[in-house]
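Blinded run. Sample ID left blank on purpose so nobody reads anything into the name before looking at the predicted structure. Input follows.
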Amino acid sequence: MRSGDFRLLGCIPFQPELNAPRTRDVAELLGARVINAGDYDQRRMANIILCARTVANTINLLKPGTLVVTPGDRDDILLAVSLAAINGVPLAGLLLTSDSVPDPRVLELCRGALQAGLPILSVSTGSYDTATRLNQLNREIPIDDRERAETITDFVASHLDSRWLEQRCGTPRELRLSPAVFRYQLVQRAQQADKRIVLPEGNEPLIIQAAATCQARGIARCVLLARPDEVRAIASAQGIELPPGLEILDPEAIRRRYVAPMVELRRNKNLNEPMAEQQLEDPVVIATMMLALDEVDGLVSGLVHSTANTIRPALQLIKTAPGWSLVSSVYFMLFPDQVLVYGDCVMNPHPSAEELAQIALQSADSANAFGIAPRVAMLSHASGQSATGEEVEKVREATLLAREAQRDLLIDGPLQYDAAVNELVGQQLAPGSAVAGRATVCVFPELNTGNTTLKAVQRSADCTSLGPMLQGLRKPVNDLPRGAQVEDIVYTIALTAIQASRAL
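Blinded prediction complete.
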C-alpha cells in the first residue's frame, strides 16, 4: 500500500439500542401467541428480565424498553407490569411462558394497561429456554422496519467524514439531496446555530423526551414551560434522563412579568391588563411573548394544542416578516432518493393569485435555506396552455407575478403534478421547461388540493415527511403535526433552530 492511499472515513461506536427489535419482530421470531398486540409495532426490546423474584425486587427493573419474561401463572408480576404501564412506563411488553394464560378476571383488572398499549405475548417453552432463545434472536433489520434502518443510517452518517467523501466523490452534475443527508445536515446546522427554543407543552412526555434529546445532542437549548417537579416526576416514570442545562420554567412563576409588555405590544387593539392576564394563562401565549421579547429564538407547539392555538398568538404578537403579508407552510417530503417541498398544505384555504405568488416565493426561499435547489412548479389540473378557466388562470397569473418579483427563480406553471416531477411526462406536456420533470418545490393552488395530496402521499407512497414548517413570520414559530412522535418533534426543533439562525 502506497503512503496516502488509505484514509479512515470514520469510527462507528457500538450502540446497543440500535439493535433493538420491535416487539412484533420478537413475537414473530418466537412464534408467540399474541394475547394483546397493543403498541407492539412501535415498542422495542432494549433489554430482557427473567422474573423469578418477588414483585418488590422486580419494580426497579421495570424500565422503558424492557421485555418482562415470566411464567403465565405469575399474576403478581402481571399486575405489577400493568401498573407500571398505566403509570406511563413504555415497556417492550410482557412475555408469558410455559403455555400458561392468565385468568380472564386478572386480565380484566389489567384492562387499563392493555388499552395503554402494553403488548402481552405467550409461548409454550419454559422461562429459561425462552430467555435463551431471546438472547439468540436474529438482530438483522427486517425489511419493513424503516424507522430502525433510517436511524442506523443517520447514526453511521454522523460518524463519517462527509466533507472528504463529498470532495472525493463529487461530480459537476447536480446531485439529488437524499433523505439521510437531509436529516444529517439538519442536525449539523441546528447544532451550529445554537438557538434557544421554547416548548410551551412542557409537561407532555413526548415533548420532555424530545427536549432531553435535543439538549443532550446540542441540537438546541430547550426551555420547557411546566412545573419543574411535574417534569421530573414524568421523566422518572418514563425513564427519561434530563440532561444538564435543560431549562424548566414554571408558567405560574413568570406569567406576571409579561403582562405590561403584552399590553404595550397590543395597545392599538385596546388590550388592558386584566385581558392580558387572562390570555397569559395559556402557556402558548407566554411562550410567544418570550419570543416577541427576544428571550428565546423560536417556538414549537401543537402536540396537544390546535394549529389555531399555536398560530393566533404569533400573528398577534410576532406578526409577519418585512415584505410578506401572509403566513404559509411547507412540508419536506422525504422520498427514497430525493427531498421535495410541498406548499401550502396547512394555512391558506383559497389564496388569490398575489397570495399564491407569495407562497411560491416563500417556499422557494425555504427550499434554498435547507440545501434544496428551488425549481418551482405551480400546480394545476392542466399544463401549459392546454386548459382555461378561473383556477388555471389564477395559477398562470401567480406564476407571472412570482417570476417578476424574482427573475432568477426557476418557476413554471400551470403544471400537472406528474408533469412537474416525472421527466418523461414533463418533456411531453411542457417541452423546453426548465422545471417540468425536475421540480423540487410543488406549490398547490389551494388548501383542499394541497392537504389531500399531502395525506395521500404520506399514507400511500414510500415517503416520510417533516413539517409543517411555517414561513413568513418575523420569528420562527412551528406547529407539530398531529400524532407527532419524538423524532418528529426533534426534527421540528432542528428546523426551528435553523430558521432562527436566518431570521432578520
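Unblinding after everyone has recorded impressions. The chain has 21 helices and 16 strands.
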